[in-house]
Amino acid sequence: MIALITGATSGIGMGCAKRFARGGYDLIVTARNERKLEQLKAELEQLGAKVLTLTFDVRDREATARAVGDIPAEWRNIDVLINNAGLARGLEPEYEGSYRDWDEMIDTNIKGLLTMTRLVVPGMVERNRGHVINIGSVAGDAAYAGGGVYCATKAAVKTITDGLRIDVAQTCIRVTDIKPGLVETNFSKVRFHGDAERAGHVYDGIRPLTGDDIGDVAFYAASAPGHVQIAEVLVLATHQANGTVIHREK
Ligand code: NDP
Ligand code: 8X3
Fold first, then answer.
1. What ligand 1 atom has the least distance to the C-alpha of 12?
2. What residue owns the CA closest to ligand 2's atom 6?
3. Positions marked catalytic
4. Does domain 2-235 have CATH number 3.40.50.720?
5. Blockwise average pLDDT, block size 10, the chain, 250 residues
6. What is the pLDDT at residue 67?
7. Which atom of ligand 2 is closest in space to residue 151's alpha carbon?
8. 107 secondary structure, DSSP code
9. φ and ψ of 181, to 5 deg
10. pLDDT confidence of residue 49
11. Element of type H or E holding 198
């Protein structure tokens, strides 16, 4: 069994990669940083997986098509595609937001996910087999202050996931939207452009989820019997009730 995971070098993508490796999958792992991909490859091989690394930016449609097009024949029958690469940038009010941040979020979270889907799912349809797991977010359920554009990209992930599920309903392909809440990864550091102190406060007074927790959920969805389609999963830390209600210990 082969799983392709975008953005596998950190956080949720890495949690998924390790879980699927431990579950007997071989892995195609992608991200932009080649050195981190090589480190991950060594770790996954320790877990018994065969690993292919692909270095590209999901925002670059030509590079993405080239990378997927060049996948060697023995790796082509992808069973699970996890569209995970994504990010948030900034937390300014919408009327003060940065065009650059908006473009980066929209190009990565929506257009990158669509490009990967367009490139990988035709093979699944031909084989009448496969599973697409998109990493959405609780942020897609409702906007929060300063998060409007990020939240909109994750609402788009939900709608795009629902649309794909409709379009492959005549096949054996399953389509899942996993919507995590607070997960401690590099996410907040990236959002705050490297400000680690500000990023750390996002998790003040609450035990957040980990990338491994989300890896477990993705693996569960992929391991369900073939007639069972886990369509959507909202996964929250126990003291988080929704996108904005979080109980923090003082
Ligand atoms: P991380 O920043 O820890 O990991 C992001 C991964 O995506 C890295 O491997 C990064 O590698 C890769 N990546 C980012 N941009 C691109 C790109 N343009 N092309 C290719 N790869 C890219 O964040 P998370 O693990 O937290 O985030 C993963 C997903 O989970 C995102 O879609 C995020 O929106 C979602 N999510 C996160 C939550 C959280 O609280 N952390 C909650 C809900 C959803 P590199 O930089 O080398 O390319
Ligand atoms: C990431 C979760 O609530 O920080 O999607 O936006 S949140």
1. 25
2. 139
3. 150
4. yes
5. 98 99 98 98 98 98 98 98 98 98 98 99 98 98 98 99 99 99 98 96 96 98 98 98 96
6. 98
7. 6
8. I
9. -95, -140
10. 98
11. helix 196-201
